[in-house]
Amino acid sequence: MKKVLTIVSNEDNIISNNSFEAIQDLMNTKTRNTWLKKELACDLYFDDTTAKIDENLSNYLDQKQFDWAIQEDLNRNKKLFLSDMDSTMIKQECIDELAHYAGVREEVSLITAKSMNGEISFTEAFMQRVSLLGGMDINALDEVYLNIELNNGAELLLKNLSKQNIYTVLVSGGFTYFTDKLSEKLGFKENYANKLEILNKKITGRVVPPIIDGNAKKNILDQITKKMQLNRHDVVSVGDGANDVEMISNSALGVSYHGKHILRNKANAQINHTNLTSILYFIGLREADIIY
């Protein structure tokens, strides 16, 4: 079965014939190349089904500041898109921003980092962090949302996924307060996240079960694919941390967006140098297909 390696460059670099030759040498196979965007995005098709992104090729692509995806050419068109929210669709980790208002940002950020790197379980870390927010006024939720910044390419990505009739779902280990608003803003069809318990306009430091952790994200993927009569070959997902490993691993195209090491090792696509619109090239769109 043929495979395709898609490489995408930022505006500061170009993809050249020298790039193709270097990749062929590192993969030890010939490729057939098709431009998606001249000098900036290209598909490299090859017949060697054992070819993969090894450490040498990965290092080369990183040095050239090329982002990439490798996948089977068959079933490349996708029907379902799942995305994490914090540090993926948006630049912030909302729980860290809430912790700033509560005066416990340092403690919460430390726990967040350990969780994202897989040092402690998401659920354990999540409960510890939420407990530190107890007693906080709910007005802080509004303040945090007003300061949220979208990651580059988020709006253009969702606009084009919608044009392609790809069903979009936001799946977050964060809070429904933010996913509800962000879903409406960007046009996600569904969203899933944790619900903060609030009493007398105060955050109690607890959440309403169930907790959306890595296993829950995979279960949501499974439920939606079953409901839509799809399979993993129809799915593209994107995330950045340990909580996204199961979702990424169970998608035909799993994208690590500035991902932690534990996630990068499970993903068959990487975005570290460009922006979220590279996903459009990964799923086979050409520049002429993209609406701005």
Architecture overview:
It is built from twelve helices and twelve strands. It is of the alpha/beta class. It has a domain at 1-74: Alpha-Beta Plaits (2-Layer Sandwich). The protein has a twelve-stranded mixed beta sheet with strand order 2-3-1-4-12-11-10-5-7-8-9-6, sandwiched between helices. A hairpin with a 2-residue loop joins strand 8 (190-199) and strand 9. Helix 4 runs antiparallel to helix 5 (122-131). The protein is elongated, with a radius of gyration of 20 Å. The two termini are 34 Å apart. The mean pLDDT is 94.
Short characterization:
The protein is of the alpha/beta class and 292 residues long. The chain has helices at residues 17-27, 55-63, 94-102, 105-116, 122-131, 139-146, 154-163, 176-186, 214-227, 245-249, 261-264, 278-282; strands at residues 3-9, 32-37, 41-46, 66-72, 80-83, 136-137, 167-175, 190-199, 202-208, 235-239, 253-257, 269-271.
